[in-house]
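ESCALATION

Customer reports they have been waiting on this structure for their group meeting. Please prioritize. Original submission:
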Amino acid sequence: MEAGKIEVNGKKVTLLERHKKNPDYKTVKQQVFIVGSKGIPAAYGGFETFVEKLTEYQVSDKIRYHVSRIADDSVRYDYNGAKCFNVNVPDVGAAKAVFYDVAALHACINYCKARPSIQNPIFYVLACRIGPFIGLMKREIRKIGGSLYVNPDGHEWKRGKWSAPIQKYWKISEAGMVKHADLLICDSVNIEKYIQEEYKKYNPKTTYIAYGSDTLPSLLDDKNEKYISWLNENGLKSKRYYLIVGRFVPENNFETMIREFMQSKSKKDLAIISTDNDKFLDELEDKLHFKNDKRVKFVGTVYDQELLKKIRENAYGYFHGHEVGGTNPSLLEAMGSTDLNLLLGVGFNREVAQDAALYWSKKEGSLAKLIDRADQLDAEEVRKMGIKAKERVNTAYSWKFIVDQYEKLFLRSKTN
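Update from on-call: job pushed to the front of the queue and completed.
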């Protein structure tokens, strides 16, 4: 490893000298402190990818990003021009993320207190985990002339993986974040509408900036050994499988998608790329007996992004059953790579894909009939759907466009 360099998530980054003076406090117009992602370089995750792209596509030299990262040490380093700092918090299960956000935001506030030349900093908190604590922290932010921006993410309190008490905490926390935020940046029009209606009494100030994606093809060709090996290991053939990619949790409607696929007449396979959840898997097997259907194949996780993109490109179609959240990264990635997308017809998904996808409901038989219909589409019809999907991503969701919107927002007059 080169002197002054370390490796983070497989990428080389430059260590920052702790006591070196930073000359850019007076020349950089806006210091932006980002809290709530697991950090960059990104290994996985929507918020992590967002922060990576925000810094990678940065154009303005008047913005300096500071990014927290959850880790076991206190290393500081430079990545994509952003100043990154590690935050170590105890492993306390589900509450670890709350501890991390509080600790990271405190570190950012103290950093600014120690450097009076930082004027009007923006603290951008991703997700609504720390609502019960944000009031006291907002006072400290005000004292140093800072502004609190919040990305409310999706309806976390609706997620089936949480127990009733945790769901209640999420809802209370969301209310606290909305109440104290100077600005809420929503990545979905539907989420922005929900914030305005649900928390009307707080008169929230909101804006809409979507999540981003790209339509670049995979660096792997169709005959790549890695891709061919993946097909062979899982008993699949190119363009002869439907695909699902997503966290293996109830609110992503795996039960409906698997049941409906089993009821369809399709001769194709269903490849499911997802996280491990043995309990949920056993529950689905008890209900559906999907192991008796040789077409249904759970193929594990795929962390190689170029391989995953190639898998998406050569899927016949993609199923998307997410119904909790805003602009979902996996949907945008599918639209950028897969020609034919079959989506649960909720507002979030229709907002993103518009007429570039086919839609189904959770009503029995809806998706099964759509699959049978999709199987009968000719190659030209499928190709045209793919063109529409990519045009939609390039028009409304390209990272260059998204980052430009953020930079204009950060450089505008402050809300405080």
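Sent to customer with the following note: The mean pLDDT is 91.
Escalation resolved.
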